[in-house]
């Protein structure tokens, strides 16, 4: 089964209307591979602005959401609000949410369930820290994180799994194409054993962690790497090169 290549840009806590407006002008004018699904993760305060300005061929994602639709949860946003802005995606479980803001696997699972039930598509993030890789427990960590997500998914066509080794995010260190392929292959094996063969072959597993124009082509050539979740480079014109990595 062919899996449509997927490139997510995670803008994180960056940009203003001027710089993001210029970035969107660049993206809108660029020649991009029509066989690639592109989704931009904008700061929540700019979701409306980004959705109104970005060409309809590009998707937009919130970078986080809460596990309920409304209530006394100061500072949070819900899937129903995200959808009300015309936005169809959310990034959940990013390592910065896990390690900077202390989100547990359990909470990420609950958020995933609620986002999917509300009709959002989810980019669900998993990945090991440096001490976990050096300790030889990468598989144990990413399988445990994947299980909590899988337990909360009914329709896998609405989910993209993003493998992001924490030691490679924003550090300039990229997992080698072989390291990325190895983990993606193992994740597909886990899905085959614990979910189904159909899901294992159809779900898109994308790589994140210092992806650049220089590293994207070789990563994209790996058979189980179905795209990227791009941080810093997604704020630069370089994102076009990354979207076109398969050309």
Automatic annotation (TrEMBL):
The keyword Ribonucleoprotein does not apply. One of its GO terms (biological process) is gluconeogenesis. Keywords: Gluconeogenesis, Glycolysis, Isomerase, Lyase. GO terms for cellular component: cytosol. It is also responsible for the non-negligible production of methylglyoxal a reactive cytotoxic side-product that modifies and can alter proteins, DNA and lipids. Triosephosphate isomerase is an extremely efficient metabolic enzyme that catalyzes the interconversion between dihydroxyacetone phosphate (DHAP) and D-glyceraldehyde-3-phosphate (G3P) in glycolysis and gluconeogenesis. It comes from Pogonophryne albipinna. Pathway: Carbohydrate biosynthesis; gluconeogenesis; Carbohydrate degradation; glycolysis; D-glyceraldehyde 3-phosphate from glycerone phosphate: step 1/1. Belongs to the triosephosphate isomerase family. It catalyses: D-glyceraldehyde 3-phosphate = dihydroxyacetone phosphate; dihydroxyacetone phosphate = methylglyoxal + phosphate. PROSITE patterns: TIM_1, TIM_2. Pfam families: TIM (PF00121). Its EC number is 5.3.1.1. GO terms for molecular function: methylglyoxal synthase activity; triose-phosphate isomerase activity. InterPro entries: Aldolase_TIM, TIM_sf, TrioseP_Isoase_bac/euk, Triosephosphate_isomerase, Triosephosphate_isomerase_AS. It comes from the Eukaryota. Homodimer. The keyword Kinase does not apply. This is Triosephosphate isomerase.
